[in-house]
Amino acid sequence: MTVVTRFAPSPTGFLHIGGARTALFNWLYARHNGGKFLLRIEDTDRERSTDEAIQAILDGMKWMGLDWDGDPVYQFSRRDRHVEVANQLLADGNAYYCYASKEELAEMREKAREEGRPPGYDGRWRDRDPSEVPEGVSPVVRFKSPNEGSTVIQDAVQGNVTIANAQLDDLILLRADGTPTYMLSVIVDDHDMGVTDIIRGDDHLTNAARQLQLYHALGWDAPRMAHIPLIHGPDGAKLSKRHGALGIEAYRDMGYLPEAMRNYLLRLGWSHGNDEIISTEQAIEWFNLENIGKSAARFDFDKLENLNGHYIREGDNAYLASLVRPVLAQKTGENVTDEQISLIEKAMNGLKERAKSVISLAESSLFLIAKRPLALDSKAEKLLDADAAAILSRVADALEGLSGWEKEMLEATVRECAESEGLKLGKIAQPLRAALTGTTVSPGIFDVLEVLGRDEAIGRIRDAAKSEPTT
């Protein structure tokens, strides 16, 4: 049997971090088993569903690298099929029309509260005589849930979970206006789409019991289920915006790499021995349901940042330069040329050693495309006093006399300058760094000299030294 998983977000907001992890787990399980990964947009809440949210979900999935098979399925477009199944349940005696008024339902909730019971429908129209139907009232259609016994969810993560049927009231299948509810739509779509495995948050466990009852009433085989613990904040509390419960696009905009996000989200609740760095290829090879933990995972920005730094250091230079390009354009307000990107790519080995995000990588690249004379930060400005200016002027003279511009030649020349001045290398390297980059932090100074090229490097040094070439 071909494994078929699905990710089924509601387009009422962004693709949040928990949803992204659910999508990842479903994607990995399908790819590991050579199966299919389907995407369904559950847009039945017409008031809250928006085109912007749908696009954010699609963009977030693409950015994460979670490709789905076939076209997305839009749940609202299948409402006629959902109604057809509700009518089938009515015809088979597994559903009924309920005419309870809003006032009656409010009284039921209040009575349950007073008696310390969970609120629920009391089944008053379950077996009423049709002669008692009130005139002018549009009924809802309710499922005739079993009153006795229990429903057992055979869960791949939680184990067997037993829920007494008495705890589950008769859920609504069709609203009074004839539109289907989420609970009905989900099981019909999963059945019709051939979904074999449902992997989702454990906040759906109660829904799972209700859905299993519907599957049994319809005579359909239920998918296998795996309910994964939710993600909590570092303090153990439910994940909120202060913890990192943001849209996945926010992480993209903060400079995280999709491969780092995949690795990090994979380890939020799943493990493979002591492995922390897990490539996407390894994840597909190793992923299973048995290694999903039963405890809530805790979101940790520091771990994500460190992991992102690893993927940046290991990243392809051309790929990283392409990510830096739009950030630089935004920061400078100017178009970044192919020539400038080529320069950044050439310097990337040094730039990416300290970077923890694409944003910091872009910021450390700014000096490469800055226009002369360079703006100096306060620390750099303090280094470039009169004594430093005089030394830099002599360094510029020495560099101008070189026949080539290779790193080894540049290093040897600057070291000779330091010896002739009676100084340690650092006493020249730091003012030189300030002159070349406008800051006190950069890749290796000889790398910087080489990448900038003869004319630009010497020009920046003379700007800082306020000197002219000697004749």
UniProtKB/TrEMBL annotation:
Chain span(s) of sequence motif 'KMSKS' region: 238-242
EC main group: ligase
GO terms of molecular function: ligase activity
Motif 'HIGH' region in this chain: 9-19
UniProt feature, compositional bias: Basic and acidic residues: 112-131
Keywords: Aminoacyl-tRNA synthetase, ATP-binding, Cytoplasm, Ligase, Nucleotide-binding, Protein biosynthesis
Entries under InterPro entries matching the protein: aa-tRNA-synth_I_cd-bd, aa-tRNA-synth_I_codon-bd_sub2, aa-tRNA-synth_I_CS, aa_tRNA-synth_I_cd-bd_sf, Glu-tRNA-ligase_bac/mito, Glu/Gln-tRNA-synth, Glu/Gln-tRNA-synth_Ib_cat-dom, GluQ/Sye
UniProt-listed PROSITE patterns: AA_TRNA_LIGASE_I
Subcellular location: Cytoplasm
Domain Aminoacyl-tRNA synthetase class I anticodon-binding intervals: 320-464
Assembly and interaction partners: Monomer.
Its biological purpose: Catalyzes the attachment of glutamate to tRNA(Glu) in a two-step reaction: glutamate is first activated by ATP to form Glu-AMP and then transferred to the acceptor end of tRNA(Glu).
Protein family membership: Belongs to the class-I aminoacyl-tRNA synthetase family. Glutamate--tRNA ligase type 1 subfamily.
Name used for this protein in its record: Glutamate--tRNA ligase
Organism: Sneathiella chinensis
